[in-house]
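The methods section describes the discrete structure representation at length, but only in general terms. What matters is that the chain and its backbone geometry are given together, residue for residue. Nothing conveys this as quickly as seeing an actual entry. For illustration, here is how one protein appears when written out as sequence plus structure tokens:
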Amino acid sequence: MRIKITQLPVLFCTFIIIIAIFSSLFSLFLVLNGKQVEGDWIDYQSYVDNLLLYASVAIIVWFEEEHLEQFHLERATLIIVGMFGILTSRLDIPYEAYFKITLLILSIIIIAGVIKNWRKIPKTKWGWVGIAIFSASIFLVPFAFLEAFFPALYSNMHIEQGGLGIYLIRRILYNLSFVSIYEELLFRGILWEYLRRSGMRENLVFWVQATIFWLLHIWRIGNPFYFFITLPIVTLMNSLLTRYSKQVVPSIFAHTITNVSVPVIVYYFFL
């Protein structure tokens, strides 16, 4: 059976989710046995996931250029994707250069597709980005208060070693390299559209992608406040931002602000 190139993102995203399921279950096993979720395997998984996601975005930009809006893709998101594929945060693992070179190539392909199809790419709704920043900011202190019940998670942040500014730059770079862009593009962008194409109604797509996203963080259940309160609220907020803006960039901003700011607030005001 021949597979069309436009079907490859479906296969790539399915593979990413399968990897994430096994990773989450293994991480949960470690947590339940009192061990830290750490090791090079996490970093390798991050790179593999990113490579598959970037390959999916490259295919969509070049071969689905008439349907970018349906994937919630617009100009700012695609520029950010291309830029942070080039400026990917270093994880200092063996053979990392091969991953970074591959990401660089995929980023160049994406940027070339963006340049070629610029007029077909939806404009960014910056008003919704402002709403996302405001929405995320409202929840920062309440989230930080809940996280403070588990101070061990934040006691080894070593902010003083380089100063707050350096720490924030590193966290923003890391999140935009491996977390917020990856998770929002996958769940609120690509998966959302392919679930819709499968025949699901919009309301069902909204809840299915959100539920999958939440359950794949099952390994965080060791912090029940985070897993049962913070994470569902963040997931709902990001999903609503995407649904009503029809773009993924607001949720990328909200996700990044939450991930970067909450640990800093916990560290300085609650520990």
The longest helix spans residues 163-197. The chain has nine helices and no strands.
